[in-house]
Design brief:
single chain; 10 helices; mainly alpha; 233 residues; 73% helix
Length: 233
Amino acid sequence: MPYPDRRTAALHQLAKRYSVYPLTFWTAPAGALLAARIIYSGTHQYGFLGWNLCLASIPYLAGLWAEAEHCRRPGHWKRLVLPGAIWLLFLPNAPYIVTDLIHLSRYRPPVPLWYDAVLAFAFAWTGCLFGVVSLSIMQARVRAEAGAAASWAFALIAIGLCGPGIYMGRVLRWNSWDVFAQPLSMLGTVFGALADPLSHWPAIAASLIFAGLMLGCYVTYVTLRTEPTNDPA
């Protein structure tokens, strides 16, 4: 497909590289569905989906920040620590939106249940997409710095941490910023589960299921991508 100039072509390639098109394709309809529901029902019952999607986009934005830092000062990996820490801290917020499907059990007319199901699915899918794209960006950066084996170890560790992160958010009702607000309480819960796993098996099982969901989404994403350049796959 011809482009008017090199700058437009370069922007198009950049958008493809960072999956801007599919993210926009899903974010815009999800927002439109939510806006239509609010207008039709006159309530904000599902307004939290918009906030949760904003949180889900933070790891993606942090990944782009890390890429920008790398382009600005190649080889200065210390400049990636801050965006990398923000990325890891907020990464569980991306697949967390899947758990918002539980709100379908609180169905209230006049909006049809099928509409709410489509609405919740659109946000859940978009949140997962933000997560896997951001993980792909960060894994590619680790691969460039440390090799393919280290990058996959990094990806698997990040995915593994998503499991308990989602559980603590949905069941224990903690937020990402509670790492700073209540660090001792969070560490106590984590170490308590590790020290006595048999007494905390529901939490561990749920964490493994959530991590498995994230792993499945990520493997699907990297398998279906057609661009070999700078991909972690």
